[in-house]
Amino acid sequence: MADNEDQRLAYLEAMDIQPWVRRDGAVAAGSAGAGSAQAPGAPYTAAAAGGDIAHLDWETLRATVLACTRCELSKHRTQAVFGVGDREAQWLIIGEAPGADEDRLGEPFVGPAGKLLNNMLLAIGLKREEVYIANIVKCRPPNNREPAPEEALACAPYLARQIALIKPKIILAVGRIAAQTLLKSDRPVGTLRGKRFYYDGSGIPIVVTYHPAYLLRSPQEKRKAWQDLRFAKETFSSL
């Protein structure tokens, strides 16, 4: 955990977040809306799909993903992007799909968006290696287009098994595709922020925020993302 205040302020500066000083002298930044807790439901599950995938161990699951041909994306990839991080992490970060850099390097969230995600995590005291990072879809869609619903469905058993193996305490859904897929919703990110949802009736809370790539294009939304991160940390602390 990053507990150095100077470091934390540097990470906030990297996110273009201007700290403010409370009356008691403590330094803060932004404010997280209280959010409304939502009753656990069954938003995203692959329980009826995937056959033996639901019983694979880590290494066999990874090998299966790397060799997967369940959808057309396998024909265009350089390599599948399985996921990275602590396999016993308390925080699971789920994004959309690999981009060009991820497809080349085989790791999610690299390049400018990955650097911003790292700073976002550091701002709430988390290092990249302390969380687990995965995507809804494991192969890069051509020209970085959004993954199609059938492509997300093809990958659903893999992500479901990763979640089952990790047993995270909280899931941070990063971006519209991740949020809508996990929550089985067509609502925009702006209406999903600041609320606590649950993964597949498991009691694992899901908190939604903007994708770092979107924040790079729309830096004026970084303060909202900081509010989301604070809300996620408050949710985690309340577990």
Strand content: 5-15%
Q: In percent, how helical is the residue content?
A: 25-40%
Shape: globular
Structural class: alpha/beta
Overall pLDDT score: 86
Indicate the CATH topology: Uracil-DNA Glycosylase, subunit E
* Spatial ordering of strands, largest sheet: 3-5-4-6-8-7
Q: At the fourth CATH level, what is the homologous superfamily?
A: Uracil-DNA glycosylase-like domain
Give the count of helical stretches: 9
Assembly annotation: single chain
Largest sheet data: 6 strands, mixed
Please indicate the count of domains. Answer: 1
Distance between the termini: 18 Å
Structural write-up:
By secondary structure, this protein is an alpha/beta fold. The chain has one domain (53-237): Uracil-DNA glycosylase-like domain (Uracil-DNA Glycosylase, subunit E). Helices cover 38% and strands 11% of the residues. It is built from nine helices and eight strands. The chain has helices spanning 5-14, 58-66, 100-105, 111-123, 149-166, 176-183, 189-192, 212-217, 222-237; strands at residues 20-21, 27-28, 84-85, 91-95, 132-135, 170-174, 197-198, 205-209. The strands form two sheets. It has a six-stranded mixed β-sheet, with helices on both faces. Strand 1 (20-21) and strand 2 (27-28) form a beta hairpin. Helix 1 (5-14) packs antiparallel against helix 4 (111-123). The protein is globular, with a radius of gyration of 17 Å. It starts with a helix and ends with a helix.
Provide a short characterization of the protein structure:
With 239 residues, the chain is an alpha/beta fold. Helix content is 38%, strand content 11%. The longest helix has 18 residues, at 149-166.
